[in-house]
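P.,

For your records, the input lines for the assembly:
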Amino acid sequence: MSQGLTAIVEGLPYILPGIGVTMSVVAGALSMGLLLGLILSVLQVYGTRPIRRLVGIYVWFFRGIPLLVLLFLFYFGILASLQIELSPFTVSVIVLGLISSAYQSQILRGAILSLPEGQLKAARAIGMSDSKAIGFIILPQALRLAIPGWTNEYTIIMKDSAVTYALGVAEIMARCNHVASRTYQHFWLYILAGLIFLALTYIGTKIFHFVEEKVAIKGYAR
Amino acid sequence: MIAEAGPVLKVQNIRKRYGKHEILKGISLELNKGDIKCVVGPSGSGKSTLLHCINFLVQFDEGRIWMNGEEIDNHSKQALYVFRQKVGMIFQDFNLFDHLTALRNVQIALVRVKKMSKTAARRRALAELERVGMKDHVKKYPAELSGGQKQRVSIARALAMDPEVMLLDEPTSALDPELIGEVHSVIRDLASGGMTMILVTHEFGFAGALAKEILFMEEGVILEQGPPEKILSNAECERTREFCGKINRLHEGTG
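Structure tokens returned:
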């Protein structure tokens, strides 16, 4: 045990910067997923039938293929054959972002559809164009309703980010693994990796809950 | 006084079907400036759909609509946006924007649609809210207001756009009996201010006192129309008499 603790203590200065890398991957993927997911959800709810179908195919594709397969496909397949050079970090953010956009589009679509249809009607009735109605009336409400779903999405992306280790991104799991194989204290270092992820998901969900309460509409109980 | 220059709103032969069921079977009506027409009739007769069609909130299959002699081109989105600004719509279930305070509910279209400055829009919104007696509640969110208060805010929201016509779709039917009076009194004020209105309602007493003309609608057609004293108590058409008789007895019974 003392050997395990020693490995952890000596490894920490190397492992802790991995938190920054993990957080960057997660923040990048979530933001990209939000931006794309927002567009996709609006297209899927209000778009014409062919557009809705295209969005459906996109969602089906990125929800249906394992992260690891997509990472390898992008990094070793597509990028290599097109001779484009991107860092493993960038590829990880992009692939996780694309996958997250598929999930986030569905979180938001659900939120939009759960609003009473009278909201859009009333916005149109006072002369708003559809884009104004969506931007000023529908999305501000839908985004609030989407926060619990996002909390979930955050924890999933946080955990999934460990897979980017397979491309050589120097995140938490990669660094713990590195120290483990040098010190042979695998048990202790994987416990450390688990604890770090637990702490990150805990802090993250707390922040999301805080935001959820902060932006809640007064008197609006469901 | 400006000379009367034809109807403010003219609706011709509106037809709407949902699948096989024809909801509106060719409705026509005209409103001159200051006219108040009430539409009565049983549930499912198409009253509400008619109002929604007039405002193009529901796409109809046939029919034409003119405002001040100018036909509305329903293929031009821009034309619809402009038209809807001039037609105030009041919904049965208020449809206030839930994420905005009473003040912002009234203000938002002034800023986003009419492009007024925030301060000017705020001043106007406050004036309209005062007009409907909601001055003390401007900072409240819809969820903090009673039904009657919500409906008054929604009326203020419509009035702020300077509508030429107001369409009121059963404005009091979702309200507690106690709260109906406050909304009625706002509508009465509008009427005495000369507002042109179409009011769908089951409140016969109110309709009779307010309207110049009552339209009785059933199964997508206007069965009979005329002055309130005739339609409500002395209709020619037997079906109108039967319906109005039932409602009148109901009100005598409860009142």
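Two observations worth noting. The interface with chain B takes residues 116, 118-119, 121-130, 132, 136-137, 140-141, 144, 217-221 of chain A (CB under 8 Å). Residues 130-160 of chain A form the longest helix (31 residues).

Regards
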